[in-house]
Amino acid sequence: MTQANREPSPAPVYSAAARHMHWVTAAVVLAMIPAGLAMTYRGNTLNIWDGLTNAMYSSHKLLGFLVLWLVAGRLAYRLLKGAPPDEPTLLWWQKAGSHLVHWLLYGLLLVVPLLGWVGVSLYPSLTVFGLFNLPALAAPNEDLAKVVLDIHGTLAIVMGLLVCAHVGAALYHHLIRKDGVLRRMLPGLGPR
Question: Which CATH fold topology does 13-186 show?
Answer without folding.
Answer: Fumarate Reductase Cytochrome B subunit (1.20.950)
